[in-house]
């Protein structure tokens, strides 16, 4: 090997050695840093907590429904004729027997006079036949025929008298005239509607209760009715259906409530049936969480500042929150930051008010 080749080989060896030496030194310098990172503690998450105490609240079985009038009558004519007079307007209050509509008599009075004459003649014929039969001058068959003629005449007279009575149409119930379908001069046929009368005192609220809960409802139980109009009534269960509806498997429940102010029928209603009291906590819906199993619950902090998940049952809902059971009487509830921590995590709990004031 000549001198030139020797010098080139020596230079190459020095370069490789220097590179390997620098790599080992860099590896040794980085090792303590990696070890320090592996042993470092994870940062503690700060969460806002609110301390809550259970209160005694009333549980309700809630049902959505609507209201109907206690009685709703479609008053119809029982005989035909021209309307001679109308005594009511829509909105009028009526009592049983109050006049509603009067029909023209037409030839009815003449037909009644004729019917009365036929009855008088038949009574005379029957009396004569009965006397002759007693003297042996008339057969029993003749007496029977005379009695039949008398009964027929009396039936015709009763029919025309009933027809005359039906020309005076009166209110069958107490209530309010909801609508009127006739006016003076109109012709009414038998069976045609005259007026609609409804009685809304009491008012009836109708709801449907699921089959799982129907055993908790009984007749006579007090019910609170909240109407879509903003009004509230208190009533009692008067009837519970005996068979579930095929599609929904719910039972019809009727609640009767005094309605002296005449609140309207046909509006939506929420029926709240009380089921007793329980100890519960009032929460904002934003504080609720969902476990991987699908359970609804909340995240709490224990005395060791560790996060725990507690399943809850919603027993009552209100406009600005929910009442839940399943928690200890006193509980520290995570209200801010619950979405960033998991059960078992150690956290730094800060009172919710202090957290809000601190920005």
Automatic annotation (TrEMBL):
According to the UniProt entry, the coiled-coil residues are 143-170
Question: Has the keyword Coiled coil been applied to this entry?
Answer: yes
InterPro entries membership: Beta-barrel_RND_2, MdtA-like_BSH, RND_pump_MFP
Keywords, alphabetical: Coiled coil
Q: Which domain of life is it from?
A: Bacteria
**Domain (Multidrug resistance protein MdtA-like barrel-sandwich hybrid) ranges:** 71-197
Annotated ranges, domain CusB-like beta-barrel:
209-273
Q: Name one Pfam family in it.
A: BSH_RND
- Give the family this protein belongs to, as stated in its UniProt record: Belongs to the membrane fusion protein (MFP) (TC 8.A.1) family.
Identify this protein by name: Efflux RND transporter periplasmic adaptor subunit
The organism is: Spiribacter roseus
Lineage, top ranks: Bacteria, Pseudomonadati, Pseudomonadota, Gammaproteobacteria, Chromatiales
């Amino acid at each position: 090997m000549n001198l030139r080749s020797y010098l080139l080989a020596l230079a190459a060896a020095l370069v490789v050695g220097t590179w390997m030496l620098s790599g080992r030194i860099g590896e040794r310098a980085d090792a303590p840093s990696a070890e320090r990172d592996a042993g470092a503690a994870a940062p503690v998450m700060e969460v806002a907590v609110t301390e809550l105490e259970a209160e005694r609240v009333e549980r309700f079985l809630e049902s959505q429904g609507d209201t109907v009038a206690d009685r709703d009558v479609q008053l119809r004519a029982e005989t035909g004729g021209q309307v001679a007079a109308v005594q009511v307007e829509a909105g009028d209050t009526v009592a049983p027997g109050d006049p509603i509509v009067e029909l023209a008599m037409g030839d009815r009075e003449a037909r009644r006079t004729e019917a009365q004459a036929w009855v008088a003649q038949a009574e005379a014929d029957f009396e004569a036949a009965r006397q002759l039969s007693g003297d042996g001058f008339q057969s029993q068959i003749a007496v029977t025929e005379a009695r039949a003629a008398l009964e027929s005449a009396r039936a015709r007279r009763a029919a025309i008298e009933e027809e005359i009575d039906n020309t005076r149409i009166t209110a069958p119930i107490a209530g309010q005239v909801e609508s009127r379908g006739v006016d003076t001069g109109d012709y009414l046929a038998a069976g045609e509607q005259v007026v609609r009368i409804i009685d809304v005192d009491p008012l009836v609220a109708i709801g449907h209760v699921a089959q799982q809960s129907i055993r908790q409802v009984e007749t006579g139980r007090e019910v609170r009715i909240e109407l879509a109009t903003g009004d509230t009534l208190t009533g009692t269960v008067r009837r519970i259906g005996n068979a579930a509806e095929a599609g929904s498997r719910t039972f019809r429940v009727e609640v009767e409530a005094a309605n002296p102010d005449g609140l309207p029928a046909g509006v939506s209603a929420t029926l709240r049936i009380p089921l007793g009291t329980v100890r519960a906590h009032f929460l904002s819906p934003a504080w609720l969480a969902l476990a991987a199993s699908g359970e609804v619950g909340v995240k709490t902090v224990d005395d060791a500042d560790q996060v725990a998940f507690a399943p809850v049952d919603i027993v009552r809902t209100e406009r600005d929150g929910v009442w839940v059971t399943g928690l200890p009487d006193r509980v520290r509830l995570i209200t801010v930051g619950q979405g960033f921590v998991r059960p078992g995590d150690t956290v730094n709990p800060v009172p919710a008010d202090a957290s809000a004031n601190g920005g």
